[in-house]
Amino acid sequence: MRELSFRVRSLGSAKPAIPEAGELGDWIRRHAGTAADLTTWEVEETLRAQGPEVWVPAAGGMWYGDRMLAAFPNVSEQRISGEFDLHTADISADCMTAAKIRKGCWWAVPSPQALHLTDGYFADEDTASEAVADAVTRVCRVMRDTGAAGHVLVYDGVPDAIDQEHFSGKRFLRFVPDAFLEDVLEVQRDLILSADAVPRLAELADSYTIRQVYVTDPTGEALAGACRLFDPEDVFCAGTAPETDQETYWKNLAKLRVCVRDV
User: Fold this and answer.
1) pTM
2) Are 111 and 136 a contacting pair, CB within 8 Å?
3) Dihedral sign of CA atoms 5, 232, 226, 51 in order
4) CATH for 3-262?
5) What is the domain partition of the chain in residue ranges?
6) How far apart are CA 246 and CA 13, in angstroms?
7) Tens digit of pLDDT for each residue in 38-56?
């Protein structure tokens, strides 16, 4: 019986579990004399887990927000206290590290909304939001200049209008909770949604132009449902690797198959 297979797209990973002291000690010794730190290890560990079965790999994840915040000297405890003046040397080094492991690697980073910054300087909500979005845009530009192919912007709430104005083009892909799929389809044609949200695809496709569909942590049934509405070539497995057994997670996603007769 003919089966459909699906390409796998990474949407980043959870922060990996810290290894045993001996293993981490070996890694530190190998990186002696460099500026590498624990975040460097996390970048390497999560990306090395994404083998050739991952069609589009992505370093980072929501946890990479800590590195981004460290690049904003005007932000302390997520509160803005002045103009944004970026210090991006560590971020550039991370991107060069990732590019050596996987050429064409994307990065998953928290969106401006997901950084949850509060304003203690601009005294105007829109001005503060504009400044944060501009700062993240500049960080993304630095990352692309040092090897990042593009960015998955991860949201844990609704994208605001300023966010949507700043991040356009093929080098950005928004990943929002299912409750905000309509909001993201106002500005992008590729859709990331959970397996549970696949039954909504027909309604969404009636109202919006959808080019490609990325189903997170899919079941065979969810993939089959998506393929009834879209060309299977435009349906993908996607996901965010958990804290442990990340390599197994990606391999299992790549093994998913759907019988043609079920489509």
Assistant:
1) 0.95
2) yes
3) positive
4) 3.20.20.210
5) 3-262
6) 8
7) 899 999 999 999 999 999 9
